[in-house]
Design a protein that fits this description.
689 residues; alpha+beta; 5-stranded mixed β-sheet; 23 helices; elongated
Length: 689
Amino acid sequence: MFGNLLALRNVRRSARDYLVYVLTMTFVVSLMFAFNSIIFSKDLQKMYEMAAIMAAMIGIATFFIVLIVAWLINYMVRFMLEKRSREFGIYLLIGMNKKEVSGLYMKENLLLGVCSFVIGLGLGMLLQQVLLVVLYSVIQVELRPHLEFNGYCFLMTVCCFAGCYLLALFRCSRKFRKMNIHDLMRENQKNEELKEKNEKIKRLLLPFSILFIFAFGVWILSGNIQSPGEAAVFLTGLFITMYVFYTGLSAWIICYVKKKGNAVYRGQNLFLLRQFASKLKTMRFTMGTLTVLFMVAFLGCSVALMFTDWQNQVLEMKFPFDVQVNSQNPEYDFAKELDIVGEEAGVKDSCVYRIYENHTNTMNTWLYTHLRYFGDEYRREDGTPDEKKIRKGSDDDAYCRYDTYMGLSDYNHLRKMLGYSTETLGKNEYILQMKQRVYKETGDFTDDVKLQDRGETLTCRKICTESFSQDGHNGGDYIIVVPDERIQQMTPYYSELAVSVKKKVPDNLQNKLDDLSDKHDYAGHTYMEEDDDNVCYGTDTIVTYAAVNLVRENASAEVRYMMSCITFPCMYIGLVFLCIALTVLSVQQLSDSAKYRFRYQVLSKIGLGRREIQQTVFRQLSGYYLCPAILSAVISGIIAVYMGAGFNFYTGVSTPVLQYFAISFALFFGVYVVYFGATYVGFIRNIEE
């Protein structure tokens, strides 16, 4: 009975002393439950066959989060044991045995964990609704608000959280049993036993770390990644650098103080420098780990913003027509498809047309040998095109075997359907319709391309870059538009149907069109091996979507859901990692505030006023908080700029590359300020008590 009352009293005290930790664990539980609910959501499973992908991505994110949560709990349990070791030593002195003291400590932590879990579960049910509202708004589906409590979701959350807690308590209990009264009484003084050895040598690690980070930035931003092996070596070195940086910084500060540098005796600098150096020396591994967590948080948010921008800027351009259908049979009339579309959504306008070829691949050759997407794959050693490889085509079917053509009348009909102006052509002229993303890379290259048809040279009248469904339907990346009298002399390649509908299409229209397609009897045309020559998907990468049947509303919702499978887990990881890292920073400082109380009392007695002491505390906490944040911001900023530049180049997104990281930094800086403010207020209160 006495043990239970003592445990309850200690829990109330611990909850006050480690409030930031308790709140963070509550928040982590709520996030874990909310995201796990997406995995088991019956509504999402009914709507999307790909619901398993979201479940897998969140499951992977949860795995890494569980690892970090386990590290946090283990760290905090050991940390609290060290801070209260003198108290436990006194318990042993007054007659309690080790088993009773160990059991008391485990009860306290279990009570803290249970309280965090119960409150977090309640918040998680509310956060679940917020998360579902955001997800449904992203995929543009109407949501009917309702509480959903899934037993499997609850069990998964309990197992993840309880597993982390019990493992940490078990390890701590084993350590506790090996300690005696002397060890317990001395445990909280170990960090004060600083050994300053070889500091002059260790300080060289600081410039070495800075030089390595600079070299890494130059290497990655200049595009010198030649192989996965090189990337692995550099990333491994970068990971090690984030840890040795703090050893070098601590040693450099110690040497600077010993040399009596110019800034040492200005104001309270001597006090702050010694405090900061000792903290870095005893926490260098922890500070390195926090830097890694901050970096992952920044990059996770940056990646989520990249894919969000793709949805906002590029997705609508991907599917300009309400419905579009492809057939490898150049004579197919699409009567069945038109009947289905008419029954389901009504036909406002439609166009059945052909894509042609004239057994030339002049345009393909230039693109294969000039686009960065292909590199030197289709060039010989002397830089000339490798015609044999080009005729064979690429493994990923970027382009058809021959250049793709379209008649002017069909082109103008499609432009009218999309609300574009019509075009005219002379007898020997052509229009090059191509993706804006590709045009940004190539510019006007038509003077270098000599298109010929039946011995006549064609000249380019105009390059158009409006959205035109060029991921395999109207060519891959491009289509060449020529006068109707010229197209009639060419060979039909494959056929297409484009439809404008009268009303909202049902969710299953694309599936109904897919049911008409069969590989062996595809759209009334027996599938032949040579039909592979007619298949092309363009050079989009990172985010690609190609299908025989495209229904804009169905495909857009599907792609938005796929994007959410990336953005939601990235934000989930980023937010949890950030909160965990900030929790460690806050708890460390608040727990040490009792030790700092005496030091600040000494400063007060030698003449510092209350305002000056508060300014000194602010500077102390700022240095401690900003050090890992700045280092992680520099490294993650370099990586985010590189990733953003590549993402924009290969997807066509036009957002400035620094914007992804800038927004990430601003979002997480807001969370940072909250934790810093709470720590500062708590620290001042503790030293003034």
